Amino acid sequence: MTSISVKTLPTYRGENRSWLQSAHGTDPNANPNVTLDVSLFTQATHYPDGFVPSGMVLGKVTATGLYGPYDNSATDGREVAAGHLYGSLPVEGETKVGGALVVHGFVDAAKLPANSGLDANARADLKLIIYTN
After folding, report:
1. What are the Cα distances from residue 87, in Å, to 52, 66, 67, 75, 77?
2. According to the model, what pLDDT value does residue 72 have?
3. For 115, phi and psi rounded to 5 degrees?
4. Which of 22, 27, 53, 128 could form a disulfide with 104, with the two C-beta atoms 3.0–4.6 Å apart?
5. Phi/psi at 121 (nearest 5 deg)?
6. What are the alphabetically sorted keywords of the record (predicted)?
7. What is the pLDDT, as a whole number, of residue 1?
């Protein structure tokens, strides 16, 4: 079950969506809901400050329907990029967290967070996203 519990976080994080070049693709009901399987993320790589950052490329695990970090070498379904995480999510101490996915729009690849997972294969998978840089 996805956690919707209220948590007090030790730090405040301002949202950085500078990677989105316009509001296109972020209209109400344009972003599918997704549930992240936190066990698929590596803390040191994907959420060193306790948050999975917006812009992270996600893939869908075929067997569970949950999402994890896109990995072109995976064999569980995450080898196909599904979209970019729309908003940063606090994941520390959680097993599943709900979020939203950007599946079409305009993205400045140079402004994606470090270790976002974007590679040439992900760009090819995400045909409805126009990338610059």
Report:
1. 9, 17, 14, 26, 22
2. 96
3. 60, 35
4. 128
5. -70, -40
6. Plasmid
7. 59
The structure tokens 């997704």 sit at 34
Given a contact cutoff of 8 angstroms between Cβ atoms, the answer to whether 70 and 78 are in contact is yes
Q: What pLDDT is attached to residue 15?
A: 86
The CA distances from residue 43 to 8, 48, 53, 90, in Å, are: 19, 5, 12, 12
- Read off the pTM: 0.89
Cβ atoms of residues 27 and 91 within 8 Å: no
Looking up tokens 């972020």 gives 26
Which one of 3.40.190.10, 2.40.300.10, 3.40.50.970, 3.40.50.2300 gives the CATH number of domain 33-132? 2.40.300.10
**Main-chain dihedrals φ then ψ at residue 49, nearest 5 degrees:** -105, 15
What is the Cα gyration radius of the chain?
A: 14
Q: Which residues of the chain have pLDDT under 50?
A: none
From residue 104, alpha-carbon distances to 30, 32, 71, 127 in Å are 9, 11, 20, 8
